[in-house]
Amino acid sequence: LDYVNPLSDKAKLEAGLEARLFNTDINYDSTGISVNADQDETPNNGDEFIPTPSTDFNYKRTIYSAYLTYGKTFEKWSYQFGARVENAIDEAKATNYLENSTEVIPFKNDYFQVYPSAFFTYTPSEKNSYQASVSRRVDRPGLDQVNPIREWSTPRISSFGNTELKPQFTNSIELNYTRKLDNGSITGGVFYRIIEDEINRAVYIDRLDFDKTILTYDNFDTTTAYGIELSSNYRPTKWWNFNASFDLYSQTQTGFTETLNTPEGQEPTLSDIDVSKIEINNLAWNFRMNNNFKVTKKLTLSAFGMYRSSQKGLQFKRKPMYFVNTGLRYSFLDDMATFSFNYNDIFNTMQFRFDGKRPYPSVGQFNWESNTWSIGLSYRFGGGKYRALQRKNRDNDEKSGSGGFI
User: Fold this and answer.
1) What is the pTM of this model?
2) Are 204 and 217 in contact (CB under 8 A)?
3) How far is CA 311 from CA 62, 338, 357, in A?
């Protein structure tokens, strides 16, 4: 429910109420077996095969919120103040059906938050604009990040979600300058961010088998970052236009990690697991660029490239990742029909590579099925124009997962 009141030609008041009710139930039926590596329960008996438990996972998220904003423009200045308040309840219940028993793992997180924001804009001329903003936002865990059902596994590692994952909160301060050019615009800015309870991939030692690890998600302590951002939308010629962005930032991350320190010649025990708080400092950068080339009135080519620099984390160092996508669009039949062809990751370089020392020395690489191509054909019937129902655009406030990767 949204309410807008234009108080005058230069002032506006907005208010709204919202309820989000999310309920999902996942049933996982298993007839498989796995090795019971719990040496405390099966001492000196070697490997014992036990059924993999079936699981019923229920996850509910209830959010009630209200917002209020006030904005005003006068001469070359404008500002907007606002706040959103919300009460959120996350409830999870995982029921594991074992061979002779049932195990229930409940979790509930009830929290109240206020998200204030303030935006200021100064426009001394048509071609120059300065912006300053202060804000607080939330990123809640996605369903794949809280689902405790095993996503995938190898002989040494298994991937699960974390039902006790909490949302992360980001406090930001930004200063930006925008310059309008004859054929586009360019924006540059600086930022400072503090992320509380940052959601990240985490690797822990498997308590049932010390030779194995658990890949999951967890809330790290605090992450602070400051840096610069540049973006541009420009048309150098009549047949070429591009969008490009670049960011460079310094980041400090703190959190708890595990290491296994077993005396030489002895079997590992729980007391050999050391938990310590560490701090990592980073300098990283990212670049992306999207190009469109108009060959004729009917034929357009496109090329997109992305590069992400190496980055150190609490447990791993992520190596650089980069890829290039290409495509074309051709219109025919008086622009009523369109043929498209897309070729993604043309050099087959989209690989996630990492190495680390916590909890064990490790080197790894994940490969997406990214080297793909597709063909499309569309036809537009009729010539009428349709107008979609306009609604206030809202973010889903969810932290995206990593597709099973670190």
Assistant:
1) 0.81
2) no
3) 35, 41, 15
